[in-house]
Design goal:
The chain has ten helices and no strands. By secondary structure, it is mainly α. It has one domain (4-11, 23-203). The longest helix is centred in the C-terminal third of the chain and has 28 residues, at 144-171. It is globular. It starts with a helix and ends in a 6-residue tail after the last helix. The relative contact order is 0.22.
Length: 209
């Protein structure tokens, strides 16, 4: 189904996309810093499942609805932007997205849920999937649906693995950061600014993009 040259080009493109700074990998890194490897990996799994959900939605044509229906697109965009803006303002004001205080630790189910929702409620990954994955699909190679799902699964797995590695690496820095409260505060502000920027970019996102 996947010629080697097509698969290699797809894998390279996906890795570059996943490594690009964004709210999902920043979230995984933040969880790794404050709560260690399990939290980083659960946040990453949530993001990966979000990618898979976007893929299934694109395969079923729901992403096309977002492109053709102004109301549907506006609703998804507003909800996603509001969620990211809320995460950003909370990180800046409460300074507890990255915290080494036991009381500030989030339950692992909530870590997973936030990682999942930050991806699902962001319309940009869905529009990216519907614009990106079909470039590698060919009717001559069999079922288009199966190809879309398979490419999406690869995207989701790479997202999970790369984000987990980033989070695990960040967890190793937690000991150094825990002794430097100013650095922790600055990191929270940086993460908050990233979320706010992502939220504002969603509000500026045009439907035809």
């Amino acid at each position: 189904m996947f010629p080697p040259e097509i698969l290699i080009a797809y894998l390279a493109a996906v890795v570059l996309v996943v490594l690009a700074p964004g709210p999902d990998n920043i979230l995984a890194i933040s969880r790794g810093l404050s709560q260690g490897r399990p939290a980083a990996m659960l946040s990453s799994v949530g993001a990966g499942l979000g990618i898979m959900l976007h893929t299934l939605a694109a395969t079923l044509g729901l992403a096309l609805v977002l492109q053709t229906s102004p109301v549907a697109f506006w609703v998804v965009k507003a909800v996603g932007a509001a969620y990211l803006l809320w995460l950003g303002f909370k990180a800046i004001s409460a300074r507890n997205l990255i915290s080494f205080e036991p009381a500030a630790a989030q339950p692992l189910w909530r870590v997973f849920t936030v990682g999942f929702l930050s991806n699902v409620l962001n319309p940009k990954p869905g529009l990216f999937v519907v614009a990106f994955i079909p470039q590698f699909v060919s009717i001559s190679r069999g079922s288009v649906t199966m190809q879309m799902v398979a490419y999406g699964a690869i995207f989701a797995v790479i997202t999970t693995v790369v984000f987990s590695l980033l989070g695990v690496f960040a967890a190793r820095l937690s000991g150094w950061l825990s002794q430097r409260p100013k650095a922790v505060a600055a990191t929270n502000v940086g993460a908050g600014v990233t979320f706010i920027a992502a939220g504002l970019s969603i509000l500026a996102l045009g439907r035809r993009q």
